[in-house]
Automatic annotation (TrEMBL):
UniProt keyword list: Membrane, Transmembrane, Transmembrane helix
The protein's name: Uncharacterized protein
Native organism: Natrinema gari JCM 14663
Transmembrane stretches, start-end: 21-41, 47-71, 83-101, 107-128, 140-163, 175-200
Amino acid sequence: MSVIRQPEVLGRTTRRRVVGVAAALSAAAVETAGVGLWFGLVVGSRTIAAALAGLGVLFCGALLRTGVFGATVTDLETLVEPARLGAALVLTAGWIVWLFVAELIGGSVGVAVGTAVLAGILTGQFALERRVFRPRAADGATVVPGLVLAAGASVLLATAWFLDRGLSAPPLSLGFTTIVVELTALHIGLLAFALSGALAHQRRLQRALDP
């Protein structure tokens, strides 16, 4: 019997897709905010206070992003808090290792090596989340999302290191006020990171929601 003759099947499929897209956008927004604030703090200021504040922001963002995945693919009543904390800690450590490796090597080589390391860590962290919240036989659903998100992170780092100028629109005069819209290098990098995050999370959440 075709899907057209089974409206309940079509309805469930549509709901899964809508839930997957909404959750992916939420996860990407949380991750962009957390990683972006942390990145801006540690790159812009090398003080201990900024490092500690950035670490707190990064961990909170990782905890929220992990929570979005868990709430999407399983019932909240079955959420295992210690495992959720462990997944968030792995994610937090992954971002720190990424930036440390990139800065240790430096230059375009540092960006490339850091991206490769981050892709491996993200792939493992995604697999850990999948095992914690929705145990299932491995199907490779975490590899591509890990690569996509790591690629977005490499653009973020490259724009901060190598892009001196941003993009700006011509001044717009409105009565007594002149508005200038300008995108700095960090804004461009964050935009690319947000897009990669949405794509990565949409793919893995859709795979996790499939029956």
